[in-house]
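WARN no homologs supplied; continuing
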Amino acid sequence: MAQPWETIDRVDTADGVLELRRRGERDFLIVINGRVLMNSSANRSEIALGESACRAVVARERPSVLIGGLGMGLTLRAALGSLPSTAEVVVAELNPVVVQWCRGPLAGLTGSAVDDPRVTVVIEDVSSVIARAAKSGAERFDAIIIDLYEGPGSSTYSRNDPFYGSNALKATASALSTGGVFAVWGENSDTAFEKRLAAAGFSVERQRPGRGGLRHVVYLAEVMR
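OK structure emitted
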């Protein structure tokens, strides 16, 4: 018989009650209002997201990477494993408690990736970080990785969606260096999102990592300039 899930921490957020649950030593869930956001045992798309994005820029002298959303730190760990010692990685996370979890009960999943000397964590909306990098004269990122619990889909068709709308994608293109990569996790493929990426100046590759079971989508989009 499977062990029951134990809630080991919970916090009220603007979106509802955020919980960290554990079963055994290495099975974890992050849940909001009863909805599972992340499962430590179902992580192949998150790992593919971090690895694929960073392999595309690993040859650069000092690759600069932005990750939107820390989660359990699995995408961050995958990114770090694909980057040189000279890399600089900024992680934008809205909830400070998630950073605490990654330094506490979740640290063993990633070898304390959040404390890697290449990493800077900012408690900020990733869209604000992108907007600053998109301004004239600002330092650009070589890769921007969006790993949020809600990817592009029917609820993100709006021109003004802060992450996947057409205005946001134009800002993301401006925030990237020449040939930079924009990588996005999604539950399912979304044709409208792919069209918006192309209109914003990206070439688009869609992947479905792994075989069998639940296969999420990873988008790799290269800015064409």
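The longest helix spans residues 44-55.
OK
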